[in-house]
Amino acid sequence: MAISLRSTILAQIGWTWNDQENDVTMTDSNKLVSSQELSSGTGTNQADCVWHEESQVLAIGESTTWELDALTKSFFGDTITIQLLTIKAILILNKTATSGGTLVVGGASSNQWYSAFNAADNKVKIEAGGLLLMSNPGDGWAVSAGSTDLKIESTGGNVTYDVAIIGTMNAAGGSSGA
Questions:
Q1: Whole-model pTM above 0.85?
Q2: What is the CATH number of domain 41-177?
Q3: pLDDT tens-digit profile of 113-131?
């Protein structure tokens, strides 16, 4: 069976800003939109796999580490393993409604994946209701031996989150087995 993936990386911020001066209303209404379609494949502006988890919960102080070269997913009664070679986009949503529940992304204790963070031990905070979207649709960020683990940790409160990663996988990845 042939594997095929169509994916889109989309980000948008829109605004309408009104200001009144001397009985004159001035309006700045606009938006900034970025949309990148990725075709199926392993080259530039292409991806061939996606891994996602929804409504995951971490209690305050808990963490999880994703092994980006061994992500598992249940699919129609089988379990598949995705061995990422590159990450083209990653989206993490902190669905926590109250302030205090923060996700800290990065800083795994070993084998840190930090390609998108510039240096080992760099971290990003995602506050309650916030999101982190990073994309590198051209070449992607490498996932290689010794740089495979991405940690997320809950600080300040319990956190519910969603995550999706689009990338390319090792030819040995995507295998299924019961």
A1: yes
A2: 2.60.120.770
A3: 999 999 999 999 999 999 9
